[in-house]
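Priority: medium. Attachment 1 of 2:
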């Protein structure tokens, strides 16, 4: 790896570290594992594996890991569509989420059938469409749950910020825009920074679940003491 790319790579590794760290936090806490959705855990584990594979391939063979992005965005779209399908609860909205998912997956399958070479490069439609749809789900969930206990609230805010940044980069079109020559900092630095912010919001979600568990434990202790 050329030295000029070292700064960007280190920042990217920082994002990977926070993702794996968050995943381990959720997995090792048996009480929280009972409280959160299994699909949320699967989402974290799957993305950790994909990100590790992406970085390893990027080190061994630079610019040969673009195909990993398809697994990332499709798995993310699948797991989070299912998560919001369950969280939102409305029968009508749930049907819309299922319908949109089937339509989008059909479109993507057709795209790869007619243009197999697309697998080896970024698919702008895949990234923009799946990301924007998840942003809509997250916004609706926050609006719907505004007056309730805010489970998955921090996660949804972080997801919105991160995905809007990704969509903005691909809509801008110039994916090779270099902001600073030495050290090499390009437009992707924004995506990496917002990814780290996303991971911070996931950590806040973990902290929120932990605080709720401690609060419930304290309330149970108070009840027991009151019975003495």
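Attachment 2 of 2:
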């Amino acid at each position: 790896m050329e030295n000029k790319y070292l700064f960007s790579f280190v920042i990217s590794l920082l994002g990977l570290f926070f993702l794996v760290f968050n995943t381990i936090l959720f997995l090792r806490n048996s009480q929280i594992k009972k409280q959160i959705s299994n699909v949320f855990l699967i989402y974290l584990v799957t993305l950790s594996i994909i990100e590790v594979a992406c970085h390893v391939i990027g080190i061994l063979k630079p610019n040969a890991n673009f195909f990993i992005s398809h697994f990332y965005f499709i798995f993310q779209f699948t797991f989070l569509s299912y998560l919001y399908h369950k969280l939102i609860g409305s029968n009508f909205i749930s049907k819309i989420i299922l319908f949109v998912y089937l339509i989008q997956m059909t479109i993507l399958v057709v795209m790869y059938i007619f243009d197999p070479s697309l697998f080896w490069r970024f698919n702008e439609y895949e990234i923009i469409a799946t990301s924007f749809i998840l942003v809509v789900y997250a916004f609706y969930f926050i609006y719907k749950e505004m007056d309730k206990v805010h489970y998955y609230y921090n996660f949804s805010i972080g997801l919105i910020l991160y995905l809007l940044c990704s969509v903005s980069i691909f809509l801008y079109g110039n994916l090779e825009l270099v902001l600073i020559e030495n050290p090499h900092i390009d437009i992707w630095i924004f995506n990496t920074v917002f990814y780290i912010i996303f991971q911070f919001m996931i950590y806040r979600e973990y902290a929120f679940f932990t605080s709720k568990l401690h609060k419930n434990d304290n309330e149970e202790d108070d009840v027991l003491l009151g019975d003495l």
